[in-house]
Specification:
heterodimer; A: 245 residues; Gyrase A, domain 2; Cyclophilin; 2 domains; 9-stranded mixed β-sheet; 4-stranded antiparallel β-sheet; 15 strands; globular; B: 338 residues; alpha+beta; 6-stranded antiparallel β-sheet; 6 helices; 20 strands; Cyclophilin-like_dom_sf (chain B); CT_A_B (chain B); PxpC (chain B)
Chain lengths: 245, 338
């Protein structure tokens, strides 16, 4: 457990004219991510806060500064930060567990073999490990509905490719730097493409356009390639979702 | 129902409103008009709420309506004509079916707006009508397309005009310190605030690249930062030290350091600065920024109040005649008529 004196965090700073940023770390740290997710749940309940979001280690609060002075909100946030050790807080109570069927390797994950090799394992063991890992939606960004999922064991601490010439299809499951990402739309990327899902985390024409929330957990169980067409017909690409509690 | 027929729509034309709020946690930035002040002014001219959608135009268009419709022209002044007759800018006009409205090259600025009484009523997507290009939201416009117009507001409309605030020539831009300002050594920040910048030709709804003489602006301790929350107006510095002012369609999180954030009331002046215009940044306190900040609803109320005051003036009819026809006295010192 870290103390505020040692690290200088959490820190509260204005961001723009109508926002505050509560930062729990300045380098990626799993406990800072848990702190941000838990603290956002609390910030979301404040009636005079208009919107909240999270990055990997911080919570952003947007409010009307003409109605709610910065100093008043900062005081309130300092009080809440002091109430507990946020770095070991549980995930938000309303988070869910998703199981998203995934076809690994072959045409559906053309970089699986090379990626497994770099991680010092083989394709079958990699599939076994990736399909049973319980990953957390640490933040959503880069593109609408684009989740950063973590955290994989140290062996998956592989760099992203520098060359962004390869485009991956919507639903692509990719990994690097001990994280997975799931592409909502076709995109060129330096992340390593290991599998494909029929899950679309951003559906602009649905009543519920976004399926994932920061703090949700996801498993990517392996299914055979012959099942892929069936998954594309199924609601949510065959994914299931249940409350964590 | 009234329909707007797009006979010709140049590149970059899009439907825009005040954007979509509430989706930052899902990675969707608010988006909306690059110049929301222009959106509010057009709405005031047409006696309607500022949230209605309008056309944002960066090149040229030629359009027609199927029913008599009041229109307003705001934002970056363009050469405007109705069946070949010039129309004044920052004003509203009547457009009859069959008449062709043409907007040509901008005389200055970047984003012009065509408002229609009743607003553009293309289907809502994710709680808004505006095009969000990076998210693939909003209609993609093409020649020959028809856009539905909503029912016009009830009050009787008349020709009127608003004085145009010059926000197209750059100038001094107020900025606020942010969570990452402290990553930049004091002398780098000082040099940033003392540097005259040029608004380069590289710019879109995601952001505007700034040009300057001399070395770049680099934070201490390199660039391996954790991705952090971004807001429109943030001045992001890329690896080579080049600053970019981020626009309404910026990403929601990103890994480049931000040296400061443009106050929202000055962001339209950055987005609208004509390429080549000079910009200089002045750091202000939150208190100073808040004192001159008005939410867009207030900008709309103020513009509406200004129009009412004009109408209460006994010389109103003469003034409007002069503004609309652009002859005789140019009481607001408009530069768009000759």
């Amino acid at each position: 457990m870290k103390s505020d004196q040692e690290t200088g965090f959490p820190q509260i700073s204005p961001l723009g004219i109508d926002g505050l940023l509560v930062r729990f770390a300045d380098r990626f740290d799993d406990s800072a991510n848990r702190a941000a997710l838990a603290f956002r749940e609390l910030a979301d309940e404040m009636a005079d806060v208009q919107e909240t979001s999270t990055s990997l280690g911080a919570v952003y609060l947007r409010f009307d500064p003409h109605e709610l002075p910065h100093a008043a909100l900062m005081d309130r946030l300092r009080g809440l930060l002091a109430e507990r050790n946020w770095y070991n807080a549980p995930l938000p109570a309303n988070h869910r567990i998703w199981r998203i069927p995934t076809v690994y390797g072959g045409a559906h994950g053309p970089q699986l073999d090379a990626t497994a090799d770099l991680a010092g394992t083989d394709a079958d063991s990699a599939i076994e490990e990736l399909s049973t890992a319980r990953l957390r939606v640490m933040a959503i960004g880069f593109a609408p509905g684009f989740p950063y999922l973590g955290q994989l064991p140290e062996r998956w601490n592989l760099p992203r490719h520098d060359d962004l010439k390869t485009a991956v299809p919507p639903g692509a499951l990719c990994l690097a730097i001990r994280q997975c990402v799931l592409f909502p739309a076709q995109s060129p990327t330096g992340w390593r493409h290991v599998g494909s899902t029929a899950f679309r985390s951003f559906r602009p024409d649905h009543d519920q356009p976004f399926l994932l929330q920061p703090g949700d957990e996801i498993l990517f169980p392996a299914v055979p390639a012959r099942d892929f067409d069936r998954l594309t017909e199924a609601p949510h690409g065959g994914a299931s979702c249940e409350p964590a509690q | 129902m009234t329909t707007l027929i797009l006979h010709r729509t140049g590149p970059g034309t899009s439907v825009q409103d005040l954007g979509r709020s509430g989706y930052l946690a899902q990675g969707l930035s608010r988006g909306g008009a690059a110049d929301p002040i222009a959106l509010a002014e057009g709405a005031a001219l047409l006696n309607q709420p500022p949230a209605l959608a309008a056309l944002e135009i960066v090149s040229s268009i030629e359009v027609e309506v199927t029913e008599p419709t009041w229109i307003a022209l705001t934002g970056a002044p363009k050469k405007a004509s109705r069946d070949g007759q010039p129309l004044s800018w920052n004003a509203c006009h009547r457009l009859a079916p069959g008449q062709r409205l043409t907007l040509g090259a901008a005389t200055e600025g970047n984003y012009a707006y065509l408002h229609l009484a009743g607003g553009i009523e293309t289907p809502q997507q994710v709680g808004g009508r505006g095009a969000h290009l990076t998210a693939g939201l909003g209609p993609t416009l093409s020649d020959g397309m028809r856009l539905p117009i909503g029912p016009p507001p009830a009050p009787v409309q008349r020709e009127r005009a608003l004085p145009s605030e010059d926000r197209f020539g750059g100038g001094e831009i107020r900025v606020l310190a942010g969570p990452q300002t402290g990553l930049f050594p004091a002398e780098v920040l000082e040099r940033f605030l003392a540097t005259p910048f040029i608004r380069t030709a590289w710019g879109n709804r995601q952001g505007v690249k700034l040009g300057h003489e001399g070395e770049g602006f680099r934070p201490a301790g390199g660039l391996d930062l954790m991705s952090e929350v971004i807001v429109p107006g943030d001045i992001q510095v890329t690896g080579d030290g080049t600053p970019y002012v981020l626009g309404p369609e910026c990403q929601t999180i990103g890994g480049y350091p931000r040296i400061a954030t443009v106050a929202p009331q000055d962001l339209p002046r950055v987005m609208q600065a004509t390429p080549g215009a000079r910009l200089r940044f002045r750091m202000v306190t939150l208190e100073e920024a808040l004192a001159s900040h008005r939410a867009i609803e207030r900008v709309h109320e103020d513009a509406s109040g200004q129009l009412q005051a004009q109408e209460a003036n006994p010389y109103h009819n003469l003034m409007v005649h002069n503004l609309i026809s652009g002859v005789a006295i140019d009481i607001f010192d408009n530069k768009d008529e000759t």
